[in-house]
Amino acid sequence: MTVVSLVTLGSGVRRTLSAGRDPVLERTLLAGFVAGIVPGIILSTIIEPWILGVALGPVFGLLYGLGFGPSTGSYLDHAVSAAAMSVPAWLLVHVIGLPLVHSRQPEWGLEGSTALAPTLVGWTVAGTLVGLLLVAASSVLEVRYGRVSRKPRQPAIETRIVILGGGFAGLTVAKRLEKRFGPDPTVQFTLVSETNAILFTPLLAEVAAGGLEPTHVTTPLRTSLKRTEVLMGTAVDVDLEEGYVVLDTDDDCPVDGRSTDIPANETRSIGDSASRDLVPYDHLVVALGSVADYKGLEGVREFAFDFKTLADAMAIRNHVIGCFERAERTADPATRERLLTFVIAGAGFAGAEFAGALNDFVRGTLIHYPTISSADVEVVVVHSRDRIMPELSDTLAAYALERMRDRGVRFELETYLETADRRTGVVSLSTGKSIGTETLVWTAGNRPNPFVELLGVPAERPGAITVDASLSVPGYDGVWAAGDCAAVPDPETGTRSPPTAEHATRAGTVLADNIYASVTGGSVSELDYRSPGSLAVVGYQTACAELWGRQFSGLLAWVLWRLVYLSKLPGTDRKIRVLVSWLIELVFPREFVQTMGERRRPPEEQ
Amino acid sequence: MIGGSAGLLGVLWLIGIGQGRVYWLPLGVLYGIVVTVVIGSRATDPGRGLIWGLGTGVLAWVLSVGTFLSLSSLLGFVELTTVDTHVPTLIRILLGLGAPVGLAVGLWQTRRTDGPLEPIDPVRALFAGGIAGVVGGWGFSIWMADVGMFPLVAELVGTTSPGLGRLVHFLIAVFIGVTFGLLFQRDARGHGSSMTWGLAYGLFWWLLGGLTLFPFFLGSTVTWTGAAVSGQLGSFVGHAVYGILLGVLYSIVDRTWLTLFYESDPLNRSVTAPGITVLQRTGWGLLASLVGGLIFGGIMWTTGDLVAVAELVGQPSPTVGFLVHIAISAIIGVTYGQLYCYESWTVGSGVAWGFLYGLIWWFVGALTLFPALLGAPLAWSGTAMAAAFPSLIGHLAYGGATGGVFYLLERRQRKWGRLHPRFTDRERDRRRTAGTPAPAAWLFILGLGMFVLVVVL
């Protein structure tokens, strides 16, 4: 009974306080009180002093009504439920409570309780009546005063938060907002993404190299988010004055023929399918990431594979396998050389890791192509600086370079790629050297998504949105940015934070917290994140890591790399799948099935 | 008509085993008709009918005894104001009227085709019920072997061989398990409710098997007096533990079956992965158990039981006992979260499930595991149960608080459902609503259990 009292009273009071006047609660309390009057008379015959029994009836009725609610069942349900609840009530009142009232020890012992058996019958009878009378009283009140109901309140949406981009920054912002706002129905979140999944880019090289399956490193946005509305599309315009984003409808002529112009005073619901191309907002988060920057180099855009998306990784994998298949049967030595030469432009983290993974893949695949020897295959990395991976210390970068060279990767350092000719299959370098190849992968430069130029907000070179330490765009209330498309100041150096998933994630968290603070009237905080270090894998069981000032290399760093990224991979099921793939890789060959046709034909056939 | 006939047959059966009178026949018919009207809309299959029949049976007995006691008191017949003299009537009502009328109404209602009654999968019921019956029977058999019951059981087939007695015991256990599956497949939705239904079914079989059919087939007189029932208290706890094991095992096998052959189908997959909900329930159960554990801890402090708890870790100190108690409470709270999620539809029903879970742990923990861990004999005797009575109050308080708080925490999560129809749909599919026989199961278990304890012991 105490338990019921505390829990139900607590619940009732909380509901009342939080919701103000609650007609259902009032009706329940009244019905419960009335329902307990007659049972109280019965209890008065078994309880001393009798007035206590009279009082306990309504209390029991009230608590039972609060706990079960008169509208949740029939006469039978409530008669039986209340009779069942009267048994513990008897224990509380007759076995424990009344002896205490009479300054005696509770009747813990069975002998004392046995003597009270007739009162248990009385309590059960009273309980049954409470259940029956509760429904009856509730029905009478309903007939007399009409039906009351606690309709689910659907308060108007007061704040719309639109997130452009479903990468690390965008998804982190959405998840964090969901956590901070909880189920608050006055706030609506919308995430616009060009893909329906987040790609875990640190493992992309393994996908391209056949170590992992594509779906294992991607997680659908819809399963990652609880209440955020996910719209798959591309933002093509924005009106910062009116506060709406225009999405590419993938349809030049809308079915209903409406213009995409909206009146200034019109607000359209996101749920209205006819107007899903116009997304109004109160807070806009720009987290669109970056795109490849070919720096205007001749022929590169046409020739090179990008290495940013899952489709890129799959295309590279299929292309490389196709190159081997064609090299196996071609008799022309020059064609064969081009097919078996793989050029990677850029040796930052992405380029170096990809080169290491690709080198492992192509050399590991050789055994299945008897006419191709290891000497026939060449993986070439063209890099503009004198050392690779500038994010790492000199020592580790030198270690990585040495290990990759040992494993067969050729480096062209302090060298620029100048032109690329897809038709002839030749890339020209700044040193005057030319390399015949069918495969050029571009990782040498990125720039913020071109959409940021449409915003017309201050930007730093090369076009990244200027944000302050709170991730807001100065001078534009309600506009925020994070990730690769934003120039997020590094609290340590004051320069722009590196465009990594780790920094995007941290910035996304702070950004969401600051939106929450803005909406709820709190104070915003500044990003104060210092990276614990960097990890890079450059070959099978070969990696280098720099964590909290300590350097690791070789197998230990490789294990660390896998553990860290496995822990950060979103989704338990993905973690398990990747772990299983890595375990399988220990004892079985890598997959080299060509899952789709190559995206282009060899030059001589064009 | 159906109910009246079942009531008539029930009374005839009572007369057949020497527990009825011919002039009760009209009463049986009347009872059957009234109960059919009362539970007709709820008893939509035999299992539901049985539970409603048993629940309303307890209710009918309480109302009749209450009336009798009141009249006796008013008329000055003080010697008639004891409850123990009415124990045979309780069993008569339950076995002769409640069960047959409920089963008959349920069977009749099954024939109706206007309700959305999902079909029973008999293979699943037989498989899961059979396995659960064997395991539950094994739990019961430990005590039976200790007290030398098997030769007595073997007498059912005309021998005194303990081995044959064990075989007969397991055959009966499997039969009960299989019928459990067939009767309650629709209602035993989760592990918690299945365990509760198992407990109710175990107690029903104590009445039908232990107190009635067993002596009947051995050629003895069937006696349901307080003294006779008091001699069967070991069997009472045994049947309760058997029922609990049966219910939980049935549910585990049944849920595994559903997971492998139904829910793994892409057409039937749920939105949220099970791993997420397990973590949520664990957290809620843990928080809720702290409230229940503190209340129970206070009771144990008053009764001086904390020292005994501390002996589990070899440190007879009340403080250590309290810490051990809180740790055990947390573990049981976590299991409550896993077992009873989606079972409550109001805070009161959450408290009620909690009471039942507390009672279950009194049977399993205080009367069985606790003495076993301390190297003592199982507390399945009247004396030991009487000594453990304060602990029963503590277990009930613990369960009620844990169940209520758990429901409130669970309800917070449901606010998400208001934001999106997919959450609402999932919630509706999984959550138990009012109208199932759950209240009848609570009343049958709590009412029968408490009356047996305080009247018969």
UniProtKB/TrEMBL annotation, chain A:
SUPFAM superfamilies on file: FAD/NAD(P)-binding domain
Domain of life: Archaea
Chain segments annotated as transmembrane: 24-43, 49-67, 79-100, 120-141
Catalysed reactions, as listed in the record: a quinone + NADH + H(+) = a quinol + NAD(+)
Domain FAD/NAD(P)-binding: 160-508
Enzyme Commission number(s) from the entry: 1.6.5.9
A molecular function (GO) term: NADH dehydrogenase (quinone) (non-electrogenic) activity
Coiled coil residues, start to end: none
Keyword terms: FAD, Flavoprotein, Membrane, NAD, Oxidoreductase, Transit peptide, Transmembrane, Transmembrane helix
Top enzyme class: oxidoreductase
Ranges for domain External alternative NADH-ubiquinone oxidoreductase-like C-terminal: 533-590
UniProt record similarity statement: Belongs to the NADH dehydrogenase family.
Protein name in UniProt: NADH:ubiquinone reductase (non-electrogenic)
Automatic annotation (TrEMBL), chain B:
Transmembrane segments: 22-39, 51-78, 90-110, 122-144, 164-184, 196-219, 239-262, 283-302, 322-342, 354-380, 386-409, 438-456
Keywords annotated in UniProt: Membrane, Transmembrane, Transmembrane helix
Name of the protein: Uncharacterized protein
Organism of provenance: Natronorubrum thiooxidans
